[in-house]
Amino acid sequence: MNIDRDDSLPAAAPSRTLPTLRKSFHRIHLIIAAVALLAGLISLLAMALEKPHQGGQLPFYLWPLLLLLSVALLVSGLIASFLTRRLNAELERWHHHLTRENDTLAHQALHDPLTGLPNRAAFTYQLEKRWLDLRERQRIAVLFIDGNRFKEVNDRFGHAAGDRVLRVVAQRLRARLRKDDLVARLGGDEFAILLTSIDREEQAAQVARDITAEMRQPVKLGDGTRLPQTLSIGVALGKHHQSTEVLLAQADSAMYQIKQRGGGWFLSPSFWELTPGVPPEREAAPC
């Protein structure tokens, strides 16, 4: 389904580590039992040695006890060493298993399952992080992107076709970005792009042009149907003395201004100087 996803953490799968821990505890019990046996043998030997013996020599019945004690010590040591190695190996596997589960949950919490793109939470986090690293005279740009007439695709061709369109759009957006830039799916047919280290407004505008040119290529469905797609893109540029809230509001407002004009356009990045919510006076560039 290409509806908005719940970004909360998914329920964890039933743990497979409990049986492993139970086995480990059973082995620990064996070690404890062996130690108790050794302690009993040593106590018997000590009690026997406390009695006076004729000629100062050990009585014959103590020699088997000493032999049994020596064998028990040797066997117990070998068993303890073996079980300890097994326990350490299982604890190590348990650690790796939990690490993989945590990594999986963290990825699911910060990524959209349909497109594989970062989600809204990840985008907001990265925007705040990169904003703090922004130096004087540097800029970053945010592009808010919304699909035009996407609901018609769902209604006419079904949700499977809509999912296909979203995945293709995500792939094309990702392919148009530099290594340090970020594209995320905010939900539904809304995407956002974060451009870092922007020197000129024209750089952000060029990215918008490239995206709109790329989207002129229809999306091909499994049955051969070709669906033309257009996007509404709002562009906002920010400087280090601004705030991320203002930047996001400007990009969102710019995108909706274009949406109200019928879509298929992107707004000039000069709009970042205007007050959020005020209709732009500059012309929009056609897709």
Automatic annotation (TrEMBL):
GO terms for molecular function: diguanylate cyclase activity. Residues 138-271 form the GGDEF domain. Its cofactor is Mg(2+). Its EC number is 2.7.7.65. InterPro entries: DGC-Regulatory_Protein (IPR052163), GGDEF_dom (IPR000160), Nucleotide_cyclase (IPR029787), Rev_trsase/Diguanyl_cyclase (IPR043128). It is an enzyme of class 2 (transferase). The keyword Transmembrane helix applies. PROSITE patterns: GGDEF (PS50887). The chain crosses the membrane at residues 28-49, 61-83. It comes from the Bacteria. Pathway: Purine metabolism; 3',5'-cyclic di-GMP biosynthesis. Pfam families: GGDEF. It catalyses: 2 GTP = 3',3'-c-di-GMP + 2 diphosphate. Gene3D superfamilies: 3.30.70.270. Keywords: Membrane, Transmembrane, Transmembrane helix. SUPFAM superfamilies: Nucleotide cyclase. The keyword Membrane applies. This is diguanylate cyclase. It comes from Pantoea coffeiphila.
